[in-house]
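User: hey, got a sec? need Zinc-type alcohol dehydrogenase-like protein folded
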Amino acid sequence: MTHGKMKAIGAYRYLPLSNPESLMDLQLDKPLPTGSDLLVKVKAISVNPADLGIRENHNYEAESPKILGWDAAGIVEQVGPDCRLFKPGDKIYYAGSVARSGSNSEFHLVDERIAGKMPKSLDFAEAAALPLTSITAWESLFDRLGISLGANENKSILIIGAAGGVGSIATQLAKLAGLTVIGTASRPESIEWAKSQGADFTINHNRPFQSQLKELGIDTVDYIFCLNETEQHLANMAEVITPQGKICAIVPTDKTTWSGSLKMDLLFAKSVTFVWEFMFTRSLFHTEDRIKQHELLNSLADLIDDGKLKTTLTERLEPINAANLRLAHDKLATGRFIGKIVLENF
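Assistant: Yep! Here you go:
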């Protein structure tokens, strides 16, 4: 069932970004909410590495276009019959589900259990920068690594890739939890950004970690949050993790350039906990606790409105159209983007 048309950006097959058909302006049927879905009028969308990865894997010709986008802020237009958390007119922000059509569309369906109330102190673009990266960072630190929000004054965390989208908000959350934060960054501008987010120290991820930490008077770290090149950094991580420490990674091994197996024995002697984080797990498998994403986005909004956290937005593009989305994907594909890029207003 549909009612009317809407603007969207999508593609029927994978093409290089230089090709105008790699991401196209489309007119699609506007969907209707059922069950616990909200129909959202999308006001701003953010771009993430997930968009690039899924776009590149969409390497076939399809009858219906693939719509990407897993970060949005907007206004609830309509609610499904089972909705209890939101009503029309509410401002919300969310990351959605990779199993469903993405948020690069004028109207979008999302299960209310994975959406949060938008921070009152932010505009739509500032809010859209946050959901995917914040859920990833929050689940990693508090669910996967088991860090508590206090009593961490003698504990430290190494965040590998501190200047990116996840690293920026993870640095803020780790500082809020009372940890000493060492971020990795390799360029003057990324070092400056990591420190502006609250990193106590920075080291260069292109050089051995141990000698750099020793120069800072740090022997080992209690936690490591690895945001890129998991296999490339494993030996370095094994050297600097505290015995019985914990490591969380968000990037699976790339089987095209690696044997496809991590040398996990490097962590054996220290009895290290190694855990993965994929923020779509809860929505993908319909886990019973998926409402935790609603709750953490609400908690995040309160922390932002209380001035304890800030948006990680660094660049705005307007309007939301295929040309600007191709530009955003291109900027992100360099792997050197600092903070978050957001498109606003269709």
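Quick note: The domain at 2-130+287-344 is CATH 3.90.180.10 (Quinone Oxidoreductase; Chain A, domain 1). Let me know if you need anything else on Zinc-type alcohol dehydrogenase-like protein.
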